[in-house]
Design a protein that fits this description.
The protein has twelve helices and two strands, in the order αααααββααααααα. It is mainly alpha-helical. The chain has a domain of about 200 residues. Strand 1 and strand 2 form a beta hairpin. The longest helix is centred in the middle third of the chain and has 27 residues. The radius of gyration is 20 Å and the shape is globular.
């Protein structure tokens, strides 16, 4: 991570810590929504931006995590923060099960399959196929989370919880980006045939990317359930997947800071144009169209790391001089 980016993160962190002193409850709640969508966009960026897999069904993993946490809490009394890792684990398992037969597909074909996946999950929730999701009414009475014995209930408290998880996510994803796994995903995105020819198990890495992205979406869903205390299938519609997909493309596919900026713009702009009522989405769509024409690579596009002559990655052996 370069120094300029680190300074930007620190400035953003200080601004968020001080935000409740200068913003009202509504504005803080908007920041909470931004944080949740940043987490969702980062989870999709791992699949779309890093591995190059077109996924329009991220709302399905989001729903699996939210409903898992809600069911564990309302039926078994499991605290929401304890249910969070379980939600991520089940979302990852679900992703592996459904992605294994179709992970070899590419481009538009995979996109169409993931759209169908998202709709299947939503319809299953509406019809209460498993008898525990509450059908179209959803699940009520979800408990607020407790942290160190303190019940989190106000927008200010949720601000620190959500953005604290965002900070952990950004740190881990930057480390992941610099690891062997992250570089393998980059090779896979740039040229899958060349990556396979270099010895990379493309199927395995694709499944791992799906599983990790789904796990993060599932944990985000558990936070959403704890914040809202009620969930229903309408909260996980196809539109949610479209919005998250747009955030990644707008900010810059593969770029962590770009995805965060894209998520902030997509969430905040409709709030700025709220006074325009129905026309606000028209204005929002127009801005997006102009953006795609003027800067299709995104606001903060991903940039390949630069090496000086003679540089060798730390975990690779330095070639020996010829005799």
């Amino acid at each position: 991570m370069n120094r300029r980016l680190l300074v930007g993160y620190l400035v953003a962190a200080v601004a968020l810590i001080l935000a409740p002193r200068f913003l009202d409850a509504y504005q803080v709640d908007v920041l909470n929504s931004v944080g949740l969508y940043v987490l969702l966009a980062l989870s999709l960026n791992l699949i779309l931006g890093d591995a190059g897999l077109f996924n329009m069904g991220q709302a399905a993993f989001y729903a699996v995590g939210a409903y898992t946490a809600a069911i564990l809490n309302t039926r078994l009394g499991v605290p929401m923060l304890w249910a969070m890792p379980v939600s991520g684990l089940l979302a990852a398992i679900f992703a592996v099960i459904v992605a294994r037969p179709v992970v070899h597909l590419r481009g538009d074909y995979l996109l169409v399959v993931t759209i169908g996946l998202g709709e299947i999950v939503r319809i299953a929730l509406v019809n209460d196929v498993f008898g525990v999701t509450g059908g179209a009414n959803g699940i009520f009475g979800i408990a607020r989370p407790f942290l160190f014995g303190h019940k989190i209930r106000t927008p200010d408290e949720f601000l620190y919880l959500i953005w604290g998880f965002v900070a952990v996510t950004v740190f881990l994803f930057h480390r992941l980006e610099e690891s062997r796994f992250g570089r393998a995903l980059t090779f896979l995105r740039e040229d899958a045939v060349a990556a396979e020819g270099s010895g990379i198990d493309t199927t395995r890495y694709r499944l791992m990317a799906f599983a990790l992205g789904a796990a993060w979406a599932g944990m985000t869903g558990s936070i959403y359930a704890a914040k809202m205390t009620i969930i229903s299938p309408e909260s996980f519609s196809f539109w949610e997947s479209v919005v998250v997909f747009l955030m990644v493309i707008l900010g810059g596919s593969g770029s962590i800071p770009g995805v965060m900026v894209g998520a902030a713009i997509v969430v905040i702009m409709p709030e700025i144009f709220r006074d325009l009522a129905t026309a606000r989405m028209l204005v929002f769509g127009l801005v997006m169209m102009v953006m795609m024409v003027v800067r299709p690579q995104g606001l903060l596009p991903w940039r390949a790391p630069r090496f000086r002559a003679g540089d060798v990655p730390r975990d690779l052996p330095r070639p020996e001089a010829a005799p």
